[in-house]
């Protein structure tokens, strides 16, 4: 059983299977789906922006196109734009992400190859949240790939590639800036599991300043490149600004859209600030608590992003769930994995159903879909808190007869 | 006193210990009583289901959308229009007597519409299905609204074949002549704010399916239909007229759409009020008359007779509703409109010797159209989930939905209990020293269990693709026996799985049962919102059987336990008529009941059967 999960056999098989799926007409059925792509990542909006751009119209002047100018430059020059080739590119991006995840696992275990490699690749490539988003050609696929590449390079200690990947990630998704702190800590220390033996940060703290400067240089260069491509700064409020000001209230799986459709306009700026700051407040505590294992801190922040960011797609929580496979030391200490699984099962069935009842069949209304996204948020929250619990619990050791661990 | 002080001190000493003790006590109480809780939930759930027809549970109907203003207008339909309807009827009877073909009929209807000065056209269609082709010709006419630009429309329709006996071939001649006479009548008035579309669909349901698909540009691979030459706006409401007899005594409401969708209740309530007050015609749900002479045993106190009679009558209606909705089958031509988000129902003239006829139905339709004409926005959401127990009473979602959810919760508790029990086994190695409380942990191999579950779903997919072949339909008796044998022998492979060391890993049968219960519970609770009747049927069919599946030691006992599950899982194959209808509904109308049974229901029951087959 274990030997059959050999990665050199499983990985190509999985990628081939995914490519076959990508070539079916499933994409056309899924690309309108609100759960799989948000206004910031939708393939249809991307195509529209490219069309406007090629016809000499500023794509950022309307309210539709919210992708980074880097996508514009890539798709109008290097990459062909036919649907089939796009599907292949998206799938290969997933394959790259899966490979990066396997590398992260190996680096964390300090071995060249393990019997779990195939399982980890499968956990990423067969995760329905991720592969359906990829089939829907949502650009969140690229966000995931860049996040995993940044983590992989950081885990391997390759500072510049990691920071470059993080800078690209920041370009296409502003809220991913949360990952910067654990990423810098990870480069400065090691990815090896220290969950069982907490200790103060052991890496080279002084290095972090220079790393941060390097990251800023990358970001400034990429930002200037974006400005050059789009011929101005109008893209900033349309792309980065959108995830802060929430101009497009198309329903998605996140918690923001419904709240802001119900909001009186004069409260809007205040609550936008609250929601955005809410994301930021997790960074410091998580990084301080898990300073001995920055990879785990990054993993927790991925979960927080997937649950609370402004325009999430299924792929964002999907990434968090797949990355759980890198932390098998957590499994014995998870308190309620079956409950989390069942919550996810309910949410994954309820969301498309209520979406259909509301927008196709017309018997339900927005509250139904919102309720199902709340179930989804509960599922993600349950997974997140259980993982945090388990991550902290490991340090206390095996359960002893007659003793109970309490959280104060 | 000392004891009390000690207790107080203990509480002050360490709040954590108190918290742990309290938590442990709570968990212990709950786990010890879980069995009772489960049984209570089952009982309450099933009793609640039984109480759905009770007159005590429902409430009176009301109009939610004030803009509708039902029955507030003077009607102008009079005896001259009735005479017109009679003329049309004579001509239609002539067509019937000459055995006119579909095209001839449609041409006649189109000509009549054109004579009235209303643009009209016909549409030919052919459905190909594994049971053979279905073809026909629809006729339709579009009367443009004199007041607006024609972005919205209302449909008045009649099918050539009445819904009597679910389309047994009785002709709906009076329904069709009512539509023609109404076209003549309605065009004289300038108050229509929506286009009026008149549709005479061929056959029973397939004609309207072809017309609606073409109207909405929906692509259906097995349908070849002419494109519609005339178009109008978004259709909001549709009234389907079914008047098969010579006269009628009551008007029956048929409202279930395909795939379990119901029309907005405001539409039905408006119709009910209009029919009662404007037309003077009593309304029924379906064609069930409330008969006062129900036999009630004399030993029951007479105070209860009224309630029992009401219960009997309402349960007849509820059961009829369950039958339509659970199978996803529309109760008439109106059901097809629902898939395009159009609220529609059929008014069925219950055949009788009197007293009502064209005069009453014309006035009622006129007034109902005036009511739907008032709509400025779509009918309110939230008025789509109901069970109509009588025309004037209904159950809100909150008074029926929990019944199925309670069953599903009971199953979930059962599944979770088995799941957590699987992780532990009493330590029997050194019995002398340790008490009975010594437990050791064991692993739960989930992957093989998920593999088994996945293979049952694959089997379901194979089964479904087998029954949708034309080979199956054409040799149904042979093929269904063959399928029954094949599908029931495949699970017997489970007998080959060897028994495992139960002290290391939990037995597969227990894990399978746990996941099976959890998954069935999820399916039931989620289906409740889409199709409550289906969820209720599933709760009845799966609730107890899935909870009592258990492995056993001897081979004969295992097989004996497995057999009833096969009957439950695959018994439907033997109901050949029902199966053929369900497949026809799937192929022509896209009703997902047949694939649901094959791919979701049957595998769930097979898994319970496998629990019985697998080793302890």
UniProtKB/TrEMBL annotation, chain A:
Spell out the GO cellular component terms annotated for this protein, sorted alphabetically and separated by semicolons: GPI-anchor transamidase complex
Pfam families in the record, alphabetically? PIG-U
Principal location listed in the UniProt entry: endoplasmic reticulum
A Gene Ontology biological process noted in the UniProt record is: attachment of GPI anchor to protein
Q: Does the keyword Endoplasmic reticulum apply?
A: yes
Task: Supply the InterPro entries for this chain.
Answer: PIG-U
The protein's UniProt keywords, in alphabetical order, are: Endoplasmic reticulum, GPI-anchor biosynthesis, Membrane, Signal, Transmembrane, Transmembrane helix
Q: Per the UniProt record, which residue ranges are transmembrane?
A: 84-106, 118-142, 162-187, 208-236, 270-288, 295-314, 334-354
Write out the annotated subcellular location: Endoplasmic reticulum membrane
**Pathway involvement of the protein, from the record:** Glycolipid biosynthesis; glycosylphosphatidylinositol-anchor biosynthesis
Secretion signal: which residues?
A: 1-29
User: Topologically, how does it sit relative to the membrane?
Assistant: Multi-pass membrane protein
The entry sums up its family as follows: Belongs to the PIGU family.
Protein name stated in the entry: GPI transamidase subunit PIG-U
TrEMBL record, chain B:
UniProt feature coiled coil, ranges: 85-112
UniProt keyword Transmembrane helix, yes or no: yes
- An example of a Pfam family matching this protein is Gaa1
For this UniProt record, give its keywords in alphabetical order, as a comma-separated list. Coiled coil, Membrane, Transmembrane, Transmembrane helix
Gene Ontology cellular component list: GPI-anchor transamidase complex
Q: Which GO terms describe its biological process?
A: attachment of GPI anchor to protein
Q: Which residues cross the membrane?
A: 25-49, 400-425, 446-473, 479-497, 517-542, 562-579, 591-610
Quote the protein name from its UniProt record.
Gaa1-like protein
Native source species: Mycena alexandri
**Upper lineage:** Eukaryota, Fungi, Dikarya, Basidiomycota, Agaricomycotina
